[in-house]
Predict the structure of Glycosyltransferase.
Amino acid sequence: HTTINDFNTTPAPPPPAHLVIVPLLAQGHTIPMIDMARLLAERGVRVTFITTAVNASRITPIIDRVHESHLPINFIELPFPAAEAGLPEGCENFDLLPSKELFKNFWDALFLLRHPLEQHLKDLDPRPTCMINDMCNPWAADVAKALNIRRLVFHGPSCIYLFCTYALQKHNIYEKVTDDAEEVVVPDLPTTFHVSKMHAPGCFNTTNFKQLRDEALHAEETADGVVMNTFDDLEPMFVEAYKKMVGKDVWTVGPLCLYDKDFCSRIVRGNKLAAVDQDRMLNWLDSMEERSVLYICFGTLEKMKVGQIFEIGAGLEASGVPFIWVIKGVEKSLEVVKWLEGFEERMGLRSLVIKGWAPQAVILSHRAVGGFISHCGWNSTLEAVSAGVPMITWPYFADQFLNERLVVEYLRIGIDIGVKKPGFYWGEDVIPVMRDDVERAVRSLMGDGEEAEERRVRARELKEKAMKAMEEGGSSYENITRLVDYMHQAAATL
Ligand code: UDP
């Protein structure tokens, strides 16, 4: 039986887990980390999400929804040190950089966030009990150390890329390689897998970024665990090999894009304003036959050359397939705008050209969409997989060439358009993909040949697997349960 005295000696309950999320200020990284924040908050973790004024203003509808639904997420806006780092006012995200020359300044600005963040978190009540930082924000490791809390690293890219990066690094495989196109075998895999330095460049592998690379690798090594936006059935061999290699907790929790099923927040995912009238777009899509529309978008960072835009346009026109084509704000030169007038007139109702931000998650999951020309950014790849949409792969850099291999060779849900070298290897005048390549790939992806049909079936099966992974009992769902438990334990042992 219980006496009054027993009550008095019952220890106070441990403080609830309070997680600080430090995302990289790039939409390809922030979007999945917001999904993760909402998911963890829904599963009982209090979250402080670090952002800045400009970035917060891009996601105000999401922040409003978080507040309406009483999810315990607090968005903290740190002042962004643009001027100190030599950046124009308001340049608070990688996709707002006016030129590539300012790339390094942006990294410098991020590093300047370390002290303000530490100060802010020290004063926070209740105090943080755990941190998840983007792998590209190694400076956050010192903040977690100063607060004496556990820290996990979040990886935006695919596991195929991460595994290759670390395995090649660990065995110094590139040390003797002089030709970036030379093929080497990736060690520690059960099958023979060849890559080249050009296609599997590793982490920040240029001389300008040596310090950043060393710090990022060190921050990963010293992290208590790793959280990844992938699922076990998608790249099992690489997930297995990666877990074995890092020898610490690894939680695969994706595809995070499947967390958000609510139309109103999906339509504003990543940016509150789309450059297209929502009703017009949906009416247009609704009027199209099932799986007949091709979607073309190259993510948030690449700026396409004018000549390349013309080649894509000519290829799409010749293919006869209806399409939605996203041309980024930065690509809207006078020449392109003028050319588009005639192009859009010729295409008439067959096309919808979105000049700026597109609500990609909504487009890809519409029943009318049956194909996607993509740069193979990891989020775009996961969104295509989650929507059961086959791809035409057109990689540029970082993990994208390996993501292409995964999509084309392993999952067999895509056709490669034939890009051989990363974007920064091309000369100013080189246009890597010509109109005939575009037309050929589009016809075979969207056509009704046997191969195309089999590809569609595989894409649909993979979508089922992705959805299962995120449902109760699925691998990612269960990993999230374990991750949440881990965070509560970390809080209890502080
Ligand atoms: N995105 C979008 N609309 C656009 C461009 C991009 O919604 O007009 C989203 C896309 O759905 C994905 C992210 O931005 O979630 C881009 O991430 P990804 O990893 O594919 O490419 P990155 O931009 O990082 O190269």
The two ends are 32 Å apart (CA to CA).
